[in-house]
Design a protein that fits this description.
The structure is a single chain. The protein has one domain: Response regulator (Rossmann fold, 3-Layer(aba) Sandwich), CATH 3.40.50.2300. Strands 1, 3, 4, 5, 6, 7, 8, 9 and 11 form a 9-stranded mixed β-sheet that branches. The termini are far apart. It is globular and about 40 Å long. The protein contains 7 helices and 11 strands. Helix content is 38%, strand content 22%. The protein is an alpha/beta fold and 209 residues long.
Length: 209
């Protein structure tokens, strides 16, 4: 018969040597998480030319950390309940959704909790504040139009994300995760972006650019 042990109590039931190994494993996990958050935070806080170098294999983890940080630099005006959680939808990138869920667990933006939803193509964006559309989504334009109409912050991960109508788009520049911003798209979505976010963007698309 299998015995299920709550994760939080597992370390208490191990022999001393195994308990030390378990503690080291948990410590390494939290240090990795802190590293991802610091990478994103450093770009948003330390100046206009502060790219994030991406070690092999952690690009998507860094993008998840950026998604979490973006929430603190946007004013939403889509009528969502101000006291409720900030809800992020992730479409076409289950690994990013899982990492974002881990990053935001127990954390807040201001006084608001963060909720993460994995979306299927064609699913309504009702209740979302931000949606991340991965590059493998078959019909990104339909999702971007829906996001704009609903006042949802759209984030993409393609070379022509801004041209398609996204508000924020990730770019990999010389093995570094950067992001670009479209002010016209933000205006159409009725979103106000922080000047700090704009100051560290790789590129800001204005009305005529």
């Amino acid at each position: 018969m299998a015995i299920l042990i709550p994760a939080g109590a597992a370390g208490l039931l191990l022999l001393p040597s195994a308990r030390r190994a378990w503690s080291e494993s948990m410590r390494a996990r939290w240090l990795t998480l802190a590293c991802y958050l610091c990478l994103a935070l450093s770009c948003l806080a330390s100046g206009a030319d502060a790219p994030v170098a991406v070690p092999a294999g952690v690009e998507r983890n860094v993008k998840a950390a950026f998604l979490y940080k973006f929430l603190g630099y946007v004013e939403f005006s889509n009528g969502q309940e101000a006291a409720g959680p900030l809800t992020v939808g992730v479409m076409g990138a289950d690994d990013i959704a899982a990492e974002l869920s881990r990053i935001t667990a127990g954390r807040t933006v201001g006084a608001r909790a963060v909720a993460v939803r994995q979306l299927r193509e064609g699913e309504a964006l009702t209740g979302l504040h931000m949606v991340f559309i991965d590059s493998d989504v078959a019909r990104p334009l339909a999702v971007l139009r829906a996001a704009q109409q609903a006042g949802v912050l759209s984030v993409t991960d393609t070379d022509d994300g801004l041209q398609q109508g996204s508000v924020i788009n990730f770019r990999l520049v010389e093995d570094r995760v950067r992001f670009e911003v479209s002010l016209p798209a933000a205006e159409k979505s009725n979103l106000k972006l922080s000047s700090r976010l704009l100051s560290v963007a790789y590129h800001v698309k204005k009305g005529g650019s």
